[in-house]
Write the structure tokens for this entry.
Amino acid sequence: MANHKSAEKRARQTARRTAVNRDRLGRIRTHVRKVEEAIAAGDKAKAQEAFRAAQPEMMRGTQAHVLHKNTVSRKLSRLAARIKAMQA
């Protein structure tokens, strides 16, 4: 429990930043899920479209330090490979 003014402020800031970061992570997961659902459905055009929408959202996550840049690079690479391997 915060006992002085600056500690109360830090507690407020942490709560706000946690909420914002949780929203960012949720948005990223939603975009990735849309790509994976399109891949599972076998719709290559829809998967590519969803992938193009997911890329910038994921990269924004790295800039906000929600996800590590190597993690995002690995996920994007694996999704791109799965889309490329799909039958047209």
